[in-house]
Request: fold
Amino acid sequence: MTIAIAITGASGQLGRATIAFLKVRAATTPIIALARDPAKVADLGVEARTFDYTHPVNTLAPALTGVETVVLISSSDFNDRVGQHRNVIDAAVAAGVRRIIYTSILKADVSPLLIAQDHRATEALIAASGLSATVLRNGWYTENWTGTLSAALAAGALIGAAGAAKFTPATRGDYAEAVAIVAADAAHNGETYELGGDEAFTLAELAAEVSRQTGKPLPYNDLPPQAYQGILESFGLHAGFAAMLVDVDVRAAEGWLEERSGTLSGLLGRPTASMASAVAAALP
Reply:
C-alpha cells in the first residue's frame, strides 16, 4: 500500500522543519526524507533516501516506491529549476504517487516577479500531470531579512530598494507547519492557497524594530535599483540572483508580496509569528 509521505529537499531548512511538524501531525504515517545526500538527514529520525533532482533515472523514481504523497519543495538551484521540477513530477507519475504538494510563490499565475516565472511553469506541469495537487503559494520569508541582521547592524544600515512597500512575510516555521498540515490531510487536495503573515510592514518598520530591540540605531537606506544591484554583487552574489532580489523589492511596491487574506493563520489555527518575535529570535 502506498501510504508514505515523502519530502524533497529534506536537508534544507524548510524541509527539516516540515518533517519535524509532520512527525507530530502524521505520527502514524511513514515519512521519507529525500535528499541528495541521505547522510545529511540521518538525524531526522525518519527513513532517508537518495534523491537528486538532476539525476532522474538513477534516483528519483526508485526513491518514490511506496509513496502516496510527495511534498515538492521548490529547488534552490536556479540552473534549470523548471527542468528539475519536471523530473520530480515525471518520476512521481511513473512511481504511482497519487498526490503532490508544491511550495510556490504568491499569485504565481499572474505575478510579474522574475522569481514567479519558474513557479508558474511548475504549476502548469503539475496541472498537466494528472496528479492530485495542493499548491502553497508562499509569500516572502521573514528570514530573508532577519538572517542578515548581524551584517546590517555591523554595516550600520538595512538596505533595499522597496521604498515604502508593504510586505506580509511569514517565518519558515509557519510555512513549514502549513505544509505539514496540508500533507497530513487529503481534504486539501485540489486547493491553491495564497499564504502570507498576519502583519504587514515596511523595511523601515523592520529596521526600527531592530533598533528598538538592540538599542542601536539602524536606519533603512532605500537605494535606486541599480545601486542596490551593485552592492549585492559586491557581496559575491551572482548577477542573476542579485537581479531577482532587486526585482522583488521593486515589484513589492506594486503589492505583489502583500497578502491579507488570513489563509495562513487559518490553516495554522493561530496567528502567524510576529515580526518582533522573528527579530528577537534572529538577534544574538
In short: Strands lie at 4-7, 31-35, 47-50, 67-72, 99-105, 132-138, 158-160, 192-195, 220-222.
